[in-house]
Inverse folding.
């Protein structure tokens, strides 16, 4: 009796705490994955920054902000998100146009909008607004979508993507394009249409090439043969490969990476933080890190499959796949598989707004998962 | 229109979505595997390759220069040392715009055209990662001024270097020579890796001859550097092996005395210990200050030295080739005795001139009235020319040449100094070979009094005198007495080259000749009797004059009438004490006129100083 009673109370406590988390609209496995990942991020950032406490404190403050944003977004029911979708998307589009007209230059690209009290990148809004908008568009249309619907969806994607590519911010525009494309693919678009789509991309690739900025072309060329320009454009990728390769199976140990500590590795707290991690923790460390990313992706996809409406399914699936693409592109870039496009490693790299957007995305996922029963009621 | 009629099938849509999500998951896993494969390639398969690259990034090998060996005189007085000096150095590789950097540097430090010229020359010769000095010998104020602005100048550093210093300056310049910046040709001759941190190399004198011993072996430091090349720490090092110290045979006090005794004259003094060939003093005058050559002498000063009519850069002791004049007479006298042509008793009559049969050319004696009846001894003491015209005629040029070669004339002494010349010991064979002409008897006569084709260096004269003094013991003249490896270890004696040549003259003949030479100094009619005053031991000597130009027939020679530079060179050779010689000397005073009046007192001063220092110690 005692044991039963005990078991009962334990079950009750667990239920109570679960209710509490549920009340906050948080998904525990996803939350755990994110917390572990950002902790690893702080540990490696401490090493990559040369044990700079100020940077750690700033990153902690950003994380706090990002978690707060996630918590707030998680409270908003998907229903409301769906309602606001056209308005948010429309505003984002206007802001992007404003950036091109009045935007501030930073590092040779026009990405910032100065609102007097606060500077931000409208492209960050679009990272969420594009999948939300495309999912909204398909929400009420029966699957599989017709060609007309696909073309309209494509327009919704291409408009912001072109505006961002014009800034120029190739990395972000490609990611936003892929987030929209994920919605299309998940919506049950016919394989016939997919192959036509791929053919279109293949034929327009040369066209895209001629519209690239010189530095974007250089990045692609450098990617194809980094040893061509070891002191110039190829320097980043060569040093990054040296850092990763010299890490070996077990790594050089935390705080012992020579490539990063002696400053051979460029951008080591931001885009190239994965190289620092590889150098210090080796292949085994990376394997564990990738498992963690995979866990988050799997949990995200699970949430999407459990979603109860077309809108939430498509949105959830797109958000988590975009998260994965971020991860893949960053790792592919620093390990020399992909050109250097300047994307951070999600939740690990030092820095700003993209982390907040990312966490807002997780907030949406949590909202989708935790508002299910409320919806069905 | 048709699509409007289509009804949403939630179950089917959900199933489609799940299918697509599964495909997406499969793709995610495939991409993860691609990443893992890439990382296996980088971290496991190519691990060694990238480790090497990381090490190359991180570790640089820096050569550490060895400290150059010091040079001491025989009593341990330092003659060449290394003093710390600050220089401003630039590593071209680390600077994007050298012109601009130099312009900015010139705002805080004095940088003139000479500095720039020297810097640019080295800039072309050296690799970009080697540091090149722009300014040397910075003073404290300049060092402080640069230190305050240092952060503006990455790639520019103040280096404390040891700079070679010669405290005795002019006095030892011709013996020790100097070190100067290595040029490309010199670098080709040495082991470049051993000289990878060395900036200077011996250019002349002892510094050049003993370069290998003085230099030492380079050391290496493995240092960890960051991306801009700043040293983080030293990982390991092989310390350099310092160069050997050299102890010279030279006695700096004797050197000083000889230098002083020459006064304002141009000339050379060499003192050798006849017992072992040690060079005790070696003065070539005028001289120069070698110290500016170490840091790089400016063009103007160098040109001034080169164009100086007195030729201060010219080392007279090794390269000056003078007719030996009458100083050769004791050797020819010995030849006469040994070949049985003259004896200690026979004599000739000297009317003041000599002529060959069938030739009315008069070969003059320096004394117009003649010496009258003259024995060999008298001919030495009074330096009678006619006696030696007669003797050399009887000996013949080839026998004479052959005998004189025993005393080392006409060939290098092989002293341990660079640049020595061989002089000329004429013979009929030599003349045929060099001039393509037969030998004339008249030339034998003037060769007999050390004129004509005869040329000797002061070193050869001193060495021959030493052989004479030691009665035939030949010791190769040498300037280095011992090697030391650091201050705490015992010096190792240099190898001594000795050869016994007692057979070149019999005992009686040696003594006869030495005795005659003693009378040159101590005899009442000796040509060097002026220096005999107050000597407690016997000095053996021989005066000589070497004609700078030929005197025409029947023309009276009046020294005062001739411009100073056309005057005869005054020579004197001597050794003392005559019975047990410890010092042999050759003195040449250029355009000094009379050997007895000008050159002999120099020798006397040196001998006095030698004896005095002997009693002092």
């Amino acid at each position: 009796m005692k044991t039963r009673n005990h078991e009962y109370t334990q079950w009750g406590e667990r239920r109570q705490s679960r209710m509490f988390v549920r009340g906050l609209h948080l998904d525990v496995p996803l939350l755990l994955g994110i917390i572990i990942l950002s902790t690893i991020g702080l540990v490696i950032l401490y090493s990559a920054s040369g044990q700079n406490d100020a940077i750690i404190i700033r990153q902690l403050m950003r994380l706090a902000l990002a978690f707060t944003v996630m918590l707030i977004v998680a409270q908003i029911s998907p229903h409301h998100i769906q309602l606001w979708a056209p308005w948010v998307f429309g505003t984002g589009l206007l802001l992007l146009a404003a950036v091109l007209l009045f935007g501030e230059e930073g590092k040779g690209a026009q990405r910032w909008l100065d609102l007097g009290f606060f500077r931000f990148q409208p492209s960050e809004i679009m990272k969420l607004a594009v999948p939300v908008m495309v999912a909204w568009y398909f929400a009420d249309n029966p699957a599989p979508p017709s060609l007309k619907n696909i073309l309209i969806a494509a327009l919704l994607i291409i408009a912001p993507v072109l505006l961002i590519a014009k800034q120029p911010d190739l990395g972000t525009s490609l990611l936003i394009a892929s987030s929209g494309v994920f919605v299309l693919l998940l919506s049950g678009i016919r394989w016939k249409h997919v192959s036509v789509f791929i053919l279109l991309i293949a034929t327009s690739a040369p066209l895209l090439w001629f519209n690239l900025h010189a530095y974007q072309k250089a990045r692609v060329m450098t990617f194809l043969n980094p040893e061509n320009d070891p002191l110039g454009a190829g320097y980043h990728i060569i040093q990054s490969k040296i850092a990763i390769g010299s890490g070996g199976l077990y790594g050089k140990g935390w705080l012992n990476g020579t490539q990063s500590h002696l400053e051979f590795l460029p951008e080591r707290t931001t885009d190239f933080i994965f190289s620092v991690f590889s150098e210090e923790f080796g292949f085994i460390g990376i394997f564990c890190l990738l498992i963690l990313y995979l866990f988050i992706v799997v949990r995200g996809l699970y949430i999407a499959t459990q979603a109860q409406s077309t809108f939430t399914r498509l949105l959830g699936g797109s958000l988590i796949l975009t998260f994965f693409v971020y991860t893949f592109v960053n790792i592919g870039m620093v390990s020399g598989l992909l050109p250097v496009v300047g994307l951070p490693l999600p939740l690990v790299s030092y820095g700003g707004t993209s982390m907040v957007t990312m966490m807002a995305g997780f907030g949406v996922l949590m909202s989708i998962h935790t508002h299910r029963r409320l919806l069905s009621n | 229109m048709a699509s409007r009629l289509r009804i949403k099938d939630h179950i089917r849509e959900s199933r489609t979505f799940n299918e697509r999500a599964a495909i997406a998951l499969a793709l995610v896993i495939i991409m993860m595997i691609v990443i893992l494969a890439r990382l296996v390639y980088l971290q496991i398969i190519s691990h060694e390759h990238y480790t090497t690259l990381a090490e190359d990034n991180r570790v640089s090998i820096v050569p550490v220069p060895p400290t150059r060996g010091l040079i001491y005189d025989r009593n341990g007085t330092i003659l060449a040392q290394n003093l710390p000096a600050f220089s401003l150095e630039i590593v071209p590789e680390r600077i994007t715009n050298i012109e601009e950097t130099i312009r900015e540097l010139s705002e805080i430090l004095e940088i003139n055209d000479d500095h720039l010229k020297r810097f640019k020359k080295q800039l072309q010769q050296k690799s970009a990662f080697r540091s090149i000095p722009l300014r040397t010998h910075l003073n404290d104020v300049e060092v402080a001024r640069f230190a305050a602005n240092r952060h503006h100048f990455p790639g520019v550093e103040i280096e404390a270097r040891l700079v070679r210093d010669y405290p005795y300056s002019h006095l030892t310049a011709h013996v020790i020579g100097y070190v100067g910046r290595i040029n490309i040709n010199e670098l080709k001759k040495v082991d470049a890796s051993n000289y990878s941190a060395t900036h200077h190399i011996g250019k002349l004198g002892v510094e050049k001859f003993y370069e290998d011993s003085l230099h030492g072996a380079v050391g290496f430091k493995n240092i960890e550097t960051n991306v801009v090349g700043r040293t983080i720490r030293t990982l390991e090092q092989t310390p350099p092996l310092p160069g050997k110290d050299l102890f010279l045979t030279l006695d700096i006090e004797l050197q000083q005395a000889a230098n002083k005794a020459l006064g304002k004259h141009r000339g050379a003094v060499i003192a050798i210990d006849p017992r072992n060939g040690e060079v005790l003093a070696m003065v070539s005058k005028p001289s120069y200050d070698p110290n500016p050559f170490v840091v790089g002498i400016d063009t103007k000063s160098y040109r001034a030295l080169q164009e100086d009519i007195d030729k201060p850069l010219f080392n007279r002791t090794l390269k000056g080739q003078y007719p030996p004049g009458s100083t050769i007479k004791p050797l020819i006298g010995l030849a006469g005795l040994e070949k049985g042509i003259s004896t200690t008793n026979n004599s000739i009559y000297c009317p003041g001139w000599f002529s060959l049969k069938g030739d009315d050319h008069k070969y003059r004696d320096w004394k117009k009235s003649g010496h009258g009846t003259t024995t060999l001894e008298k001919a030495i003491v009074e330096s009678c020319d006619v006696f030696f015209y007669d003797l050399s005629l009887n000996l013949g040029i080839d026998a004479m040449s052959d005998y004189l070669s025993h005393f080392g004339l006409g060939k290098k002494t092989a002293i341990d100094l660079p640049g020595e010349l061989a002089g000329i010991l004429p013979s009929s064979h030599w003349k045929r070979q060099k001039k393509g002409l037969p030998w004339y008897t008249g030339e034998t006569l003037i060769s007999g009094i050390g004129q004509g084709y005869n040329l000797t260096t002061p070193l050869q004269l001193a060495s021959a005198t030493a052989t004479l003094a030691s009665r035939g013991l030949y010791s190769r003249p040498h300037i280095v007495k011992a090697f030391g490896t650091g201050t705490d270890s015992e010096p190792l004696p240099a190898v001594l080259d000795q050869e016994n040549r007692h057979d070149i003259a019999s005992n009686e003949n040696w003594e006869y000749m030495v005795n005659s030479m003693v009378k040159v100094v101590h005899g009442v009619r000796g040509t060097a009797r002026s220096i005999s005053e107050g000597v407690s031991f016997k000095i053996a000597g021989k005066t000589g004059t070497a004609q700078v130009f030929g005197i025409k027939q029947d023309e009276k020679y009046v020294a005062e009438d001739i411009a100073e530079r056309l005057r005869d060179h005054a020579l004197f050779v001597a050794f003392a004490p005559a019975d047990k010689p410890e010092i042999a000397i050759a003195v040449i005073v250029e355009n000094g006129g009379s050997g007895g009046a000008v050159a002999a007192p120099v020798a006397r001063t040196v001998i006095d100083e030698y004896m005095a220092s002997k009693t002092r110690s």
